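Could you join me in thinking about how sequence relates to backbone shape in a protein? We need material for that, and I hope you will provide a protein of your own picking. Once you have written the record down, we can walk along the chain together:

…
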Amino acid sequence: MTGLECKRAKPLKIGDIAVANRVLLAPMSGVTDTPFRRLTAALGAGLVVSEMTASDDLVNGRPMSVLRCEATGIGPHVVQLAGCETRWMAEGARIAEAAGADIIDINMGCPARHVTGGQSGSALMRDLDHALRLIEATIGAVKVPVTLKMRLGWDDRTLNAPELAQRAEAAGVQMITVHGRTRCQFYKGEADWSAVRAVRNAISLPLIVNGDITSYEKAVDALEMSGADAVMIGRGAQGQPWLPGQIGRRLETGTAESAPPLAEQLKHIRGLYDEICSHYGLRIGLKHARKHLGWALEIAAQCRAPAATLRNWRQKILTSDEPSSVHRSLEDAFDDFAWSAAA
């Protein structure tokens, strides 16, 4: 059997928790809130992970942090925590577990300056001893499995992901995800899936590869080059929440699926829009929804709609503060795209 066939034959598990398939939705700040995770999970993603939540904010009960940790009601509930102090990570993990988290994921991969400037996220890869203290504190605080997400290292001179992964496994982490870039690369260049192979060789845990996986073909390449057990899709799911599920099913069955018809895409974005507005309240929800509306329009317009047509509909829809107007315009826009596709 090929490596991919071997993976198909062996179920993917995090501790005792079975994962539905080998394509996970990455945690993305400002994107993977509960409405988006719920939709992506309903469309077949193997596992979805909450937005990164600052552990001290969660402990202090900040409303937006609490909202980020809300469960989708579909599949295992994974809460990702970030922080640089053991007491906050431990207490944040306890609170997340008490609120229903089935898995706690530790963020040691975020490259954002406001995160690394506070010595959280990928900044922790510059001090592995401190990183391990945070991992141990989190594991010691909860009974649910704890997982870890990281990058290849801080920069090209410190590619220490294999060492961190090995030490994390020894501490009791149950799964590791590696984004195939260093922190200093941010999202520039291309993810180096082959570099993740060194982590595969260092651990026996389930390993997830992340970065630039936007199609089935790229998912297969990432799995083969990294030796990972599954892939995690981030930006590739923006505007197309069905993509993780489609790739996951194809990895399992070999059967390819086309993008949903425009009418179905319209149904998804209208439902997501309404749920986001309800989830946050209309004033905040309108702002959060705009990015999703923009991505959905861009994906729908790939059916050969002229660039000017897309620009006009983006301008009209993304500047509207009236939900009923947004719904009418979305319907008209998708009709316009359908005419372009048929022309």
Notes: DSSP finds 15 helices and ten strands in the chain. Residues 323-342 form the longest helix (20 residues). The chain has a mean pLDDT of 94.
